[in-house]
Amino acid sequence: MTEEMYTANLIGDMFSPKVPCVPVMSNAGIDISNIAIHPMNNDPSDDTPTLSETPTTSQRSSTSITTQPALASIDDRSPSLMPLGRIDTSVRFQDTDAEGRPSIYLFIFVNPLSGDRKGSDLIHLPIQHFRLRRLPRVQVEIHNILDSVDRKAGLERIQLIENMIKLQQLPALPTDEDMLEEKQRNGGALSKTARTRHIHVWSAGGDGTVMSVFEMLVAHRVDMNCLFFSCIPFGTGNDFSQVLGWGRTIPHSDVLGRRLAHLEELVTERLEKAEAARLDIWQVEMTAHPSGYVRLAGPHRQDGHDVAEIKDDREYSNNPRLERKMCNYMSIGVQGYVGSGFEEHRAGNRFANVMVYTKESAKWVFLRKFPPVTHFIDSILDRDGEPVLRCPDPRKKSDSKTSRRAAAVHCAKSSSTNHTPEMTKHPIDFVIQNIPHIWGREVDLWGEAKYGLESVRNRSGATHPDNWRPQLANDGRMEVMVINDLLSYFKKLANIRQHVSRIGQFETPFTVRFRPPPENNQKQKGLWSWIKRRLTNRYERENIICIMCDGEFYVLKDPKELKFERYAQIWTLGRSDEKRKGRLVLDELAKHQQEDHPFPSMQ
To answer: 336: closest CA among 298, 305, 379?
Structure first.
């Protein structure tokens, strides 16, 4: 073949006309080809073209064009990719027909310091971009998320592939016939779902790394409709990996293995046994009163535990407002307090971290005592700003019989006119959950809870069981539960279930509103008042609440509000084979059934 003939055939392959999209049925029977996922707060000025359909092999071979201006424009757009001093790509886009080009690109962003630092082996491989013999249509690219140059190179590569998809400059995605032939030749075959998109992005780290990778993609305006998202668990809890069905840890302590056998197993398992499932991504806006602040707990250090290097440094300073994304769950109270102290002494390996966490838990249980969260939380508001749950202030307890009798009369009068649901207890922890997984364990707190309806009086709307549905991670709702006392907390530590009280299911958006800060100019009178104040723990005395959000810990002094709004949905790849289906995959199946057969109410 002459050089001119090769050029014509290559450009013809790239600019073949569009063909209609054929709906793809996954092995779980879900048609995902016509379901588009968009951010919930799209910028109306964004005119980025949508993902184009890719022609089949037979249609690609029917057209030839003899000019190549588009190739030059693609190459010219990425000059910064070359001077990295490392392998840029294992295959050139203009390579020969005999070698072939990959049609699926897998980008793995690794936090090398997460957990036991297993990810360090990945970023120190002598090759960073490669293809597996078992799945030669997939090109794997490994990037260090803590290295600003390497992180930028990975993002530029994703944007380059994204543009080539829209210009139809990539080979067609493999068909069933292609996979049958490939399996006979190489022993591996992509799942029907995994081969419906050209771009796959995985995080390799803990739960904090998961959301850091997502926020990184959002910040660079990567079209989430172009890719599948998954992970490799290198962290401590790894709740995200577990709900996908990939387990809490990797199966081997050595992530590479002899002749890279373990790495090949990790990659091929997620591509050969995968099913698509949607996941809600929530945006949390944390605000404080002018007298307070919001900041990340712990010192600003370079240990990679929360991917601090790609965060705004202002998150470690005292700000009146912070925003972040979440997909797992939030704890207001117990886990926030223990975790904030844990961040001050976090170690470099998993076993040491467990010991530090145990020590901090003991401090709170036996010395400081957890303050009731109703000391801080005033109410929960719906999208219209109307209260749907009120939390009485535990500090307003009456001491004398007369005042208690007067309070009872006042309560009776107010209850006859005000039917807003109201907390009857003063719990030590609020759990706001998106996925049915918590504390690093596969615990369905919402589905398995059997008690605690008495925690709220005058139940209605979002707090009434008749309006509840089985928990799903893709329904635009968050489940709110509480841990009432230390006994429940000990049960949690012992993995004893059914001990939480369900408060309600709240639709996007909703707000947790805190009480106004106390007046600091009111002096305590008398010796007993002074002693009582000194016996109160510092957090309660200084009006400081701590929260845990997807593995990261925040300190809020004089808190004002926590606003929750569903930001987007992403397509994830969860496990689905004869041995196991991930919880998110089961949620996706339930979502389809719900559309045809609405769920009955939950009692």
So the answer is: 298
Tokens of 585: 């995959």
Interacting residues of 342 by C-beta distance below 8 A, sequence separation 6+: 353, 356, 357, 360, 553
Helices of type H across 273-349: 334-344
What are the angstrom distances between the C-alpha of 487 and each of 30, 308, 483, 501? 43, 35, 9, 13
Instruction: Determine the Cα–Cα distance for residues 500 and 587; give it in Å rounded to an integer.
Output: 22
Q: Give the largest Cα separation in the chain, rounded.
A: 102
pLDDT at residue 525, rounded to an integer: 59
As to burial, measured by CB atoms within 10 angstroms (0-12 exposed, 13-18 middle, 19+ buried), residue 597 is exposed
Classify strands 104-110 and 199-205 as parallel, antiparallel or unpaired.
parallel
Is the peptide bond between 509 and the residue preceding it cis, with omega within 30 degrees of 0?
yes
CA-CA-CA-CA torsion for 464, 467, 470, 473, nearest 10 degrees? -100
**Which residue reads 């591509």 in tokens?**
271
Token digits of residue 373: 């969260």
Give residue 268's identity as a one-letter amino acid code: T
Tell me if the pTM is above 0.90.
no
The single residue listed with the structure tokens 């959000």 is 549
Q: For the segment 63-91, what is each residue's pLDDT rounded down to a tens digit? A: 322 333 333 333 333 434 434 444 344 55
Q: What is the CA radius of gyration of the chain?
A: 27
Give 230's strand partners. 202
Contact status, residue 193 vs residue 573, Cβ threshold 8 Å: yes
- Determine how β-strand 129-131 pairs with β-strand 138-144: antiparallel
pLDDT (0 to 100) of residue 316: 59
Cβ proximity of 278 and 569 under 8 Å: yes
pLDDT digits (tens, 9 = 90+) for 474-516: 999 999 999 888 777 676 666 666 667 899 999 999 999 999 9
Backbone angles phi, psi at 35, to 5 degrees: -100, 115
Burial label for 451, CB within 10 Å (0-12, 13-18, 19+), is exposed
How does 44-71 read in b/e, with b if 16+ C-beta sit within 10 Å? Answer: eeeeeeebebbbeeeebeebebeebebb
Give the per-residue pLDDT at 600: 42
